[in-house]
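Before relying on records like the one below, remember that each one covers exactly one chain. Contacts with other chains, cofactors or solvent are not represented anywhere in the record.
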Amino acid sequence: MAEPILKNFIDGEYVSASGDDAGFDVIDPATEKPYAVSPVSGAADVDRAFRAAEAAFETWGETTPAERQLALFRIADEMERRADEFADLESQDTGKPRASLVQDEILLSVDQIRFFAGAARVLEGRSAGEYMADHTSFVRREPVGVIGQVTPWNYPLNMAVWKVAPAIAAGNTTVLKPSDTTPQSTLLLAEIAAEFLPRGVLNVVTGDRTTGQAMVQHRIPQMVSITGSVRAGMEVAGTAALDLKRVHLELGGKAPVIVFGDADIDKAVQGIATAGYFNAGQDCTAATRVLVHQSVHDAFLAAMVAYVKENVATGDPRDESTFYGPVNNATQFERVMGVIGALPGNATVETGGVRRGTTGYYIEPTVVSGLRQDDDAIQNEIFGPVITVQTFTDEAQALAYANGVQYGLASSVWTKDHGRAMRFAKHLDFGCVWINTHIPLVAEMPHGGFKHSGYGKDLSMYGFEDYTRIKHVMSYIGD
């Protein structure tokens, strides 16, 4: 039986891509079997989508905040009603455990849409004032226009929401390309949104890197937003610069997790293991680079290995006892196993480090000790279920090790010393610093990094403002 062929969603309806014969199989990472065929959208498909978005912007950009809010609330309500359907698609696409998806991701996405729906009605500029005699000035915040957006495979629905919800709430229209390995939930989101949005406000095109390149190169979008690898972000920024497009980048991470001798070791182990292995470590903020004070290093390492062996299991996404499923695709599986296989002689694999079974992209939870600061596994993102444990002697060394990578997305410090926690919150060169916890996110607070982790913010009013432009208006009020 032939696998179903997916379609793009453009101008309010499903449409076949112009190059259906150039489609590729979408693979279930748990079974390694295809379950759908996704087209590689070409320049003509991308142009069709952007023209639909451009036409829609003429009216959507003129809507009131109340109208945009109502549409987003209705989308969120319908997503909540169909949460199980989203979870089924997301589990099949990503390999994530089905049992936890509704609560951990689908309803979280619903909440984030509702946040941006509310934000649509409280976006304000500075108060009007006379900064020159006989002249009144004020600031208008306006939508940017048409936005091109690209999302990754680790959180397909959640990342789509992070992009389209603030863009649409601000009055923009969008064309979004999901990852080639995880297109289904994004297409369903577009289908549901079309019930409450005018045609062309949200468009989805499927494809590969060439599709993404065609989107960035297209003349219509005024801004491009991508969540992905550092390499992809640099390519997007370079291409966008040729046309002076705005760029919003959320890229890789290598989060330091700093554990001091006064920390509650048992709570730290449990929290770090959860934040390190959740989603098979495929998270730019994952707690996978642990720095432990030398006074408690051995005790922490022993406790971490014991906890992982007892409580962290990878397996079938349909099994309710599974903590995390397979990594998402064959390329990522080979990459993670390649990193483990290339560990230097000073490294020790304390547990894991092997494939689970012979079918599916499963990797056993892995703990590695003995790595040095300049080792590749410390310096570069692994993006898999691998936690490394280093040691440090004092605060200065901990801070130097923590900041001594190219990334700057997220970090955490585990200590009972408030002064120390505040010092590290100040000096850690990362967009997020957690204290005695790691990985919780709330819609009200910004998410985004520094250095090679990109620029621009997701979530919060800061993320909302990224999808607006500022205009100064001055009026002569003299006689």
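The chain has a mean pLDDT of 96.
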